[in-house]
Amino acid sequence: MRDILPPESGRWRAFDQVFARVVERAGYGQLITPLLEDLGVFTRIGDATEIVTKEMYDFVDKGDRHIALRPEMTASVCRAFAEHRPTLPWKIYYSGSNFRYEKPQRGRYRQFDQVGIEVLGADDPHLDVEVIALGWEFYARLGLRRVKLVVNSLGEPDDRARYVEALREHFAAAGDALSEQSRATLERNPLRVLDSKRESDQPLIAAAPQIADFHSDDAAAHFEAVLAGLRLLEIPFVIEPKLVRGLDYYRRTIFEFQGETLDSAQNALGGGGRYDGLVEALGGPATPGVGFALGLDRTLLACDDEGVFPALPIELDAFVVDVTGGSAAVELTAELRNAGFSVDRGYDNRSMKAQMKLANRSGARYALIVGDDELAAGTVVAKPMQGGGDQIVVARPDIVAHLSSPTEQK
Ligand code: HAM
Predict the structure, then answer these.
(1) Cα(62)–Cα(273) distance, integer angstroms
(2) Contact at 8 Å (CB) between 260 and 267?
(3) For residue 341, how far is its CA from the centre of ligand 1 (angstroms)?
(4) Residues 327 and 287 in one domain
(5) What is the pLDDT of residues 245-265, one digit of tens each?
(6) Pocket flag, ligand 1, residue 270 (CB < 6 Å)
(7) Calpha distance 270→135 (Å, rounded)
(8) What is the CA radius of gyration of the chain?
(9) Range of 395's domain?
(10) pTM here?
(11) Helix, coil or strand: residue 280
(12) Do residues 227 and 347 share a domain?
């Protein structure tokens, strides 16, 4: 878990703001849910999911409730939907921290942030397209270019179940040819064997049955409609028949946005898909859902790699240097801030030299200097700090006007 200092923290806020702008324009409203939920909310994500079985921060609180820090937000959204029964379709977005007890490394943390959207209550493949297109647009707005969209369909729950059986047989028949780790995975969740990065497993994975051969007509038609929509919007994609994703609740469309500059183990910038049965499992009516979550931490690493969406320093209009005791600075900063300017100042009545050094470092457009002479004369020295220019003496009442239109005053 990390501390995020300025100016990086400002970049996090800007990230959220860009995301909110993109999805609010498409009719999504923000949902804020608690960081904690009853453990049962998350166990319903699936007991074959490592996120649930191994990585959860769960504990018993003082009221004897077994609760957990959220490892993701889709389950909380479905819980909230079941509780509030909003009108359909419910289009919401969220942003915030999640917690998974993973092995920390670059791009993988125990506390990480996501932004995401979910739509509950509509089955239309056009929605899958809308959701994917909004993710795509968001990355473009950040300035990222090396993002690859991969899509797949897991079919209907029955298709998926038959496919899982076929995979189980295929891998079990391989015996020791499958790595020990993958044999353990096979016991729990045969789909996840397809995720194995081990070299020795690759020939068996390549020869494994393909999900498309198990798609029902409905599932195949839904997937085709999604692909047609993506083509219509000219969003490039790659069909990846081995894409399975790490959560159990998916059916039909699944997708991932991969950062091509990142290490393959941590290259998923975001992902999502359709899920069914989750609302029902949480006490609501049977409700279709589709959505995604995008990882902030990893996406910013990809931005660093591509040199886009930099952390910007806080921009200051002025830095007040007062060597007469500080009262003039109290008044001047308050007046300027009230007038809408961004203003910082020196403290502790430090020397002119020390305060000017701070003014320089602050990146402010102007240093506004008050010495004994200025105090007596009712003036302020305005010294341009960026790009040079001569300092001039401004009458105290004219200072706001001077900052508003500096060129006119010169
Ligand atoms: P997920 O694939 O588990 O999906 O997480 C989505 C994104 O969160 C990942 O692609 C990654 O960028 C980021 N992420 C996950 N774990 C970590 C970590 N330990 N450190 C840093 N970043 C991480 C979900 O969470 C689903 N709820 C997505 C979804 C929404 N499906 C349907 N609706």
Answers:
(1) 37
(2) yes
(3) 39
(4) no
(5) 888 889 999 999 999 999 988
(6) yes
(7) 9
(8) 28
(9) 318-403
(10) 0.93
(11) helix
(12) no
